[in-house]
Amino acid sequence: MRVLAMLDGTLADPDRPHLRVDDLGALRGDGVFETVLVVDGKPRELGPHLDRLARSAAMLDLPAPDRAAWERVTQVVIDAWNQPGEMALKLVYTRGPEYGDGTPTGYALGLPLAAKALQERVAGVAAVTLERGFDPEVVPRAPWLLLGAKTLSYAVNMAALRHAATRGADEVIFVAADETVLEGPTSTVVAVNGATLRTPPPSSGILPGTTQAALFRAAERAGWSTKVEPITRADLANADALFLASSVRKITRVRELDGVPLPDATTRQAELNALYESEYS
């Protein structure tokens, strides 16, 4: 099942064409998006997702998203979704047609969760570290690189995942030129040492994680320590446990890194997911 609604709230047939062939989102990846997890009709972290959508749009000099319109179209899709359980809700905002009147394109698409994502929630992932090709020092000097924006330009991310597959891995953890850890193609890195959770800082040019933020809030209430600080490639191998946090896969354990099995973190994963779920109970 899929549910499509345009930004004006109109439901549309997802099997029919709606995007113009000259839409700059399709031609150049000139746009931004968010993926929101919806559980039993309730969107998780919708406010932070819309905040991030607005930040990304500002970095691309797109018109400021109409927050009320995005909230309405989100509810339109949720109301039209007639299945229990979970749904992935994609919010897409592009610069619009190249030969149009300058009006951006916006729509929301409800999708079932991919079987692979559900499987990885349980089985964990094997990951490889790959260079991302920049030094964090460039972030404040080069805003045109859009580091930290969630753009539609995901070709590099998808290429990295395909490369990982050729090495027998499921996932990628990007590292910078100075060997500091960045993020996954669609996830945030969380390392566990004792009762401390660590994640790299957004200042390194990565996307602030909504799921990671929810986990850290819950962990702090439960007495854990949390740190947003630089993490090195060596820190990953030395962590007690390593996880990737994302809206759809929630808190997924990394069971193998660069071909080396990591300590079994099944129990710790259950603990962290319980903390995360406590945000919504």
How would you describe this structure to a colleague?
This protein is α+β, with helices and mostly antiparallel strands and 281 residues long. The protein has 2 domains: 111 residues, D-amino Acid Aminotransferase, Chain A, domain 1, CATH 3.30.470; 161 residues, D-amino Acid Aminotransferase, Chain A, domain 2 (Alpha-Beta Barrel), CATH 3.20.10.10. The chain has 8 helices and 14 strands. The strands form 2 sheets. Strands 7, 8, 9, 10, 11, 12, 13 and 14 form an 8-stranded mixed sheet that branches. Strands 2-1-6-5-3-4 form a 6-stranded antiparallel sheet. A hairpin with a 3-residue loop joins strand 12 and strand 13. Helix 6 crosses helix 8. The longest helix is centred in the N-terminal third of the chain and has 14 residues. The protein is globular, with a radius of gyration of 19 Å.
How many strands appear in the DSSP assignment?
Answer: 14
Mean pLDDT rating? 97
Which CATH architecture of the largest domain is right?
Alpha-Beta Barrel
How many separate structural domains? 2
- Structural class of the secondary structure composition? alpha+beta
Characterize the quaternary organization of these chains.
single chain
| Count of DSSP-assigned helices | 8
List the helices and strands in order.
EEHEEHHEEHEHEEEHEHEEEH
What radius of gyration results from the CA coordinates? 19 Å
CATH H-level superfamily title of the largest domain:
D-amino Acid Aminotransferase, subunit A, domain 2
Enter the CATH topology name of the largest domain.
D-amino Acid Aminotransferase, Chain A, domain 2
Strand content: 25-35%
Biggest sheet record: 8 strands, mixed
Please identify the top-level CATH class of the largest domain: Alpha Beta
Poorly predicted ranges: none
Shape: globular
Helix content: 25-40%
Instruction: Please report the distance between the alpha carbons of the first and last residues.
Output: 27 Å
